[in-house]
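target protein:
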Amino acid sequence: MNQALRFAFLTALLSSLAAHSMAGTIQTSFSTADGFTTGSTAPVSLSDGQFAVTFEGGQQQQFFDGPSYNSGPDAYLFINGNFNGAVGTNDTGLIDFSVGVTNVSFFAANRANGAGVTLNVFGIDDTTLLGSSVVTQTDIRALANPTITEFLASDFGGNAIGSIQIDLPGPAANPPYALAIDSFSATAVPEPSTLAFLSLVGIGVVQRRRRRN
């Protein structure tokens, strides 16, 4: 392969890899169109290319609890106890990312008893605790002017986010405990190995251009 063809090939390869390694974004309001089934507690995964988000330990619900919905009529509820006829038996729920993410946002509300629900943010190893936040607001409808819950890697020293654990209060004497989330969005970053490979390919392309000139 002559230098011109080799350069064209490497350039095309670099462009292809860059396109496939671009940050992915997943957004959902938890409708059945996204693969959620009302009342089902089975984990649900959404994907954008190689980037996937899995929700587990909760259930999608429609219509039955207005303050749980930002965009309506769907939301995802993590429940410990019996909340308005929806039953959950987990003390914790999980939002898990297949790759590290730079930002996560959603509306959240503490919809049952207890002073608040704790959200624990972990790194890409799913064991390093990056930080925690407590949700105390009780209504996420737009008319209630709710505060959005947002986590940024830049707030954690640049460490990408690997998962979020929902720690529901309990067991205690006054269940149920429930957290509703809606209007979810997350953006992933390319894996470090992919970025390193792209850099090496880019250097190779530049060097070949210099030699040719």
User: Anything to note?
Assistant: Confidence is low (pLDDT under 50) at residues 5-21, 193-203. The chain has two helices and twelve strands. The radius of gyration is 21 Å.
